[in-house]
Amino acid sequence: MSGWDPPPKPKPKQRDPAVVRAEQAGFQIIEAKSNQLLLDLDDGKSMDTRIYDKLCEVYGAPKMEEWRSKSGCGRHVVLTFGGGLFGTKRPDFSDAEATALECALGSDPMRAVSNILRIQYDYKETRVLFRPTERVAAIAEYEKLDQEGQRQVFTAGARLLEQA
Predict the structure, then answer these.
(1) Rounded CA gap, 101 and 110, in Å?
(2) Can you give the residue ranges of every domain in the chain?
(3) What is the pLDDT of residues 125-135, one digit of tens each?
(4) What is the pTM of this model?
(5) What whole-number distance in Å separates Cα of residue 154 and Cα of residue 83?
(6) Residues facing 93 on adjacent strands
């Protein structure tokens, strides 16, 4: 007996329950890489162009991918900075740095708070967006029509969705 015990094995990181629920509901989970910023722009809000221009000056123009959020009122944007062009460098954002930049660009502040909590709780996924799949979009449309009292027309379609 040497009097020294090895440190305990680290616990595996837990998954955020909100991410698990979204995955179970059929959403595609987009996890950020260190050279990406994920934006949740609500109600027609656009990116802060001054911040965007500064990031482009330092890291080069990013590849941009976007889609409408499930609510249809906002959009989700993924900015992927490649670097390497014209002396720009590829960023290696920490989760905290990326969250601050996302917020500065105009992303939903509640999403930033959620990201910070995921970092503090040491969850497996820290910066994510939920992307509606075709199945999720069809169910959302069905639910919207149901609220308008038109459920009977779409019952057959809903049964097909439930079987998928």
Answers:
(1) 14
(2) 17-132, 133-164
(3) 899 998 888 76
(4) 0.74
(5) 48
(6) none
